[in-house]
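idk why but the lab printer keeps eating my pages so im just putting this in chat instead. protein + S-adenosyl-L-homocysteine:
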Amino acid sequence: MEKTIDENIQGTTLELDSKKQNTKKLYMESYGCAMNFSDSEIVASILTKQGYNTTNKLEDADLVLVNTCSIRDKAEQTVRKRLEKYNAVKRDLNPNMKVGVLGCMAERLKSKFLEEEKIVDMVVGPDAYKDLPNLLKEVEAGRDAVNVVLSKDETYGDISPVRLDSNGVTALVSITRGCDNMCTFCVVPFTRGRERSRDPQSILKEIQDLAEKGYKEITLLGQNVDSYLWYGGGLKKDFKSATEMEKATATDFAQLLELVAKAQPKMRIRFSTSNPQDMHEEVLHMVAKYDNICNHIHLPVQSGSSRILKEMNRLHTREEYITLIDKIRTIIPECSISQDMIVGFPTETEEDHQDTLSLMEYVKYNFGYMYKYSERPGTMAARKLEDDVPEATKSRRLAEIVAAQRAHGAERTKAFVGKTVEVLVERESKKNENEWSGRTEQNIVAVFPKGNHKIGDFVNVKIKDSTSATLIGEAL
Ligand code: SAH
Ligand code: F3S
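predcted complex ->
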């Protein structure tokens, strides 16, 4: 008995000591995709060991880190505006503050960033975060620091992320890094390098830790998850030269899904993003087989025109995509499907645009993310094709696909009215403090009166009404 008390006291003291040591303040902002948010949790973990605590007050920060996105010009402009803000705070309130840029813009602009934006002290690419302790020493000594080296094998599999802005219920777990697909519009293969997969054992361990902390849902994350292939480490493209043994014992995405589903039967499992050309039927069978793998597939298509898909170097046709959609509907009848779409890719005609609208009509996606084409320096499309669709045409086409998506979303959500769905409670509804907000396994937001339920509960909710994107119901 006494021993237990002693141990507790000792434990508390140790914890206080380690917090006391962390006196430096880190302010961090993240932009862009889920992968960036996941990376920021790795960076926070590395910096915690360097004596930093996070703060949400910019004016108090010793170090400001901004994790940046390059996917569209607008994303880069957003970061430039934030740098202006940091500049003003540094000038007026906090002259000793240091500023580092991380992520895709850091990788794209490299040391040019230091010239273009005087406020920046440090530039760190997505594969170089383990070098942060060294880079920070340089910065603290008053020198600029840059590391934008891309890696063949870095997956940060050995780093246990510090969860940021967490609801304690859902978490991101990264399983691959980089992308080999070379879609002609996309900057990601340049900023995040070649594709490599993370050791399944480290993935399982991270998820087990999350389960022990009470997390209820994880999303396996990668630019192209279906391409996951673990054969002992190294780049995916080098798999052909792996040994016979490595080939025979390799783990692909369907196998990884099964490992996770079996290891964590009580956890909801999601994955994102699937590129249609890399999705195998085996993955669909896993989703169908395991109740805890959510019936939702994010399946970006970008365009409904086979001609444009070819120009984009998406390695499938409209017809092959439709065949895949039909397969999903057969194997997983309850599956929701979502999309990413680009309008105004170079040379896109009115006929191509109509093909996109008719494909949307065929699939009737549950939801989607739609963008105007934004030319990215260095990509194949920027080098070979003129950005020739006028801005006004891009805007009109975007408005048309957004309207179509809204109508399809409304039709899909309405089909749930009268049904009972399982909702994992994530947060208070933004519109009504007396309601919870959560998601169904199809990844549709549902709200309902709080009752005695709490965040992290799985609740059976009877759906009474719907909007284009939200289900409205009551707990049973
Ligand atoms: N595989 C990635 C996709 C990368 S970017 C993932 O995991 O989500 C996300 C989406 O941004 C793409 O699917 C595409 O629809 C859009 N996008 C990428 N490059 C773009 C560009 N140059 N202009 C407009 N939209 C773009
Ligand atoms: Fe980009 Fe295509 Fe890869 S959209 S991230 S190059 S699958």
